[in-house]
Amino acid sequence: MSIETKNNDKETVGMILSLLSNGYDDYLASRTLLNHNLILQGAILANTAIEKYFKSILIFAGNQIKYTHSIMKMLPQIKNFDVKLYNKLNIDFMVKVDSCYVLRYIDSAPQNFKITLQKKQILSELDFTISTINEKINISSIDGRKHMSKYSTDRDLKIHALVNNNYLFQNTTKEIFLTGTDYLHEIMIDSNKNFIEFKYQTDFNSEI
User: Is 68 contained in some domain?
Assistant: First the structure.
């Protein structure tokens, strides 16, 4: 995905760049919430961040963007445009954060809804997803000058909001990152639409 800021397509390019910028800001906000153990709120913003990155890709691909916040509904189009990117994505993670979006408003959640959110799991998969998408994006002006993305700039500067608790910058593997103490948030909506939640911490061994 190589974006050129051509004058004859300024509106489209502007929309793509705005989505990428806003998506990155949502990503950092999600990381901040997760790192402060606000796991549900972080998961909802993780969905929003990925949604904006996906929409920027689909606009670039020439797809018509329908009004939706569901990243799962966008995945078939992502696959059609770039199957290599699609194959790198963790679909189980996409399903999980996609399902969290309905919990922005508890009264809109369906009956018998249940989900378990693990802080480190969401962090690691979100970091991997955004890093993978950014590797696909090349922004340059019509004269060939390349522009550093906010992600690349913050990565080089080791900005705390990006690198804090990010296994990609810790010289470790995802499997090792997921071991040790972690925080979980379980959410249930029963058949009477009662909201039930549990927040706790536990230890995961190296065999996970």
Answer: yes
Query: Cα–Cα distance between 88 and 128 in angstroms, integer?
Result: 9
On the CB side of 152, CA atoms within 13 Å amount to: 12
pLDDT tens-digit series, residues 165-194: 999 999 899 999 999 999 999 999 998 888
Q: Alpha helix (H) ranges present in the chain?
A: 10-35, 39-60, 71-81, 83-88, 91-100, 119-135, 150-157, 160-163, 174-177
Residue 179 is assigned to a structural domain of this protein? no
68-101: per-residue pLDDT in tens?
Answer: 789 999 999 999 999 999 999 999 999 999 999 8
Distance CA 77, CA 177 (A): 32
Q: Does 12 map to a domain?
A: yes
Residue 199 domain flag: no
In this prediction the pTM is: 0.90
Place of tokens 């691909």: 61
